[in-house]
Amino acid sequence: MKKRDYYEVLGVPRNASTDEIKKAYRDKAKRHHPDMNPQNKKEAEEKFKEVSEAYEVLMDPQKKQLYDQYGHDGVSQTFKGGGFTWDDFHHFDDLQDILGNLFGGSLFENFFGFTGRTQRQRAKRGGDIHVILSISLEDITGQIKKQFKINRNEACQQCNGQGGTDFSSCPQCGGQGQVRTQTQSFFGTFTSVSTCPRCRGSGQIIKTPCSKCGGEGRIKVPRTIEIKVPRGVGHKQYIVLRGEGHYGRGGKGNIIVEFEEKPHEYFERRGYDLYLRVFVPYSKLINGGSVDIPSLNNKKGKMKIPKGSSAPEIIRVRGKGMPQPGGGQGDLYVELNLQPLETTDKDLDKILDALKKYEGKPTPKKRK
Ligand SMILES: [Zn+2]
Ligand SMILES: [Zn+2]
């Protein structure tokens, strides 16, 4: 059988972009996959291999150049056996993207005679889990515990997180995890080293994938995590729970908990200080006394109003602000405001008239 032109096999023009080549391969790989053609599996296998070979060559700049210049004879020398085999194929990732969902990952086991589900996560650390935790000012006292739920990849118990029990050295890289590709070209011989596409760098392939996790080595588990909210922690600050993230064969990732502070009903936070406005009746501003104020610890707060206070006036209450990480507290600043009178009583005019003789004239306040 005469070898067909690669561009013709994929149905793309000679000046096709990589995106066009990818798209063409995507379509053809799906159409010719043997599992999609159970009636004539053998023929489909040939076609599938043919489009994959064309894809391998046209996606590799050096191989493509050789092919464009010298045709099949030019490029076939770059294949290990002098002709294309699956060992020369570098795009199992793409193939898994294209077909993975279609066949539930069975593609490699069924077709290539080896488990494409190699230990691709082996050297890879598990991912981090980001959590945004909503907290109130009350939660920041350093005594409060909070829980949140996550779905975490954990090591499969059955295979100890290895994806299987029966391993063999990767035939493509000889267990090295890396492959050297020598390419002859017009300009000389190029050697490039890349991660082995078959074992994805682990140097091993699983012969019998674990039946519980399907060879992934990990299983999603819902978990509830409890943390102590750090004392004095602020909006957008975060803590890292090392090794509590997703499992990966190269180690576990972290959980990153970011705090999102809920606005408080009464207090405004600035750093470790708190700001509060209270409305104080006229008589209390004049005579002094104490008023109830909200607090962060559920205890009733009280505050002294000095005799002869005015409004607005800011009173600093030391040590009644936010807890600080190393101990100590910020301050509380209370702004006194005049409580409006709640009456429509006719007698009010008389009372105010009577007060007038004690009032001074409106005066501008001197700054110093
Ligand atoms: Zn390998
Ligand atoms: Zn398993």
Explain the overall architecture.
The protein has 368 residues and is of the alpha+beta class. Among the domains are: 1-113, Helix Hairpins, CATH 1.10.287; 268-356, HSP40/DNAj peptide-binding domain (Sandwich), CATH 2.60.260.20. Helices cover 23% and strands 29% of the residues. The protein has helices at 6-10, 18-32, 41-59, 61-76, 92-99, 107-112, 282-287, 347-356, and strands spanning 129-135, 145-155, 164-169, 178-185, 188-195, 204-209, 218-228, 238-241, 247-248, 251-252, 255-261, 268-270, 273-280, 289-293, 301-305, 313-317, 332-338. A 4-stranded mixed β-sheet has the order 12-13-17-16. Strand 4 and strand 5 (188-195) form a beta hairpin. The chain is elongated. The N and C termini lie far apart (102 Å).
CATH class of the domain at 1-113: Mainly Alpha
> Major sheet, described briefly?
4 strands, mixed
What integer value in Å does the Rg equal?
Answer: 37 Å
Strand order of the largest sheet: 12-13-17-16
What's the shape? elongated
Tally the beta strands.
17
Hetero groups in this structure are: zinc ion
Summarize model confidence as the mean pLDDT. Answer: 84
In the CATH scheme, what's the topology name of the domain at 1-113?
Answer: Helix Hairpins
| β-strand amount | 25-35%
The succession of helices and strands, N to C, reads HHHHHHEEEEEEEEEEEEEHEEEEH
Helix content: 10-25%
Class from helix and strand fractions: alpha+beta
Poorly predicted spans: 103-122
Number of helices: 8
Q: Specify the CATH architecture of the domain at 1-113.
A: Orthogonal Bundle
Distance between the termini: 102 Å
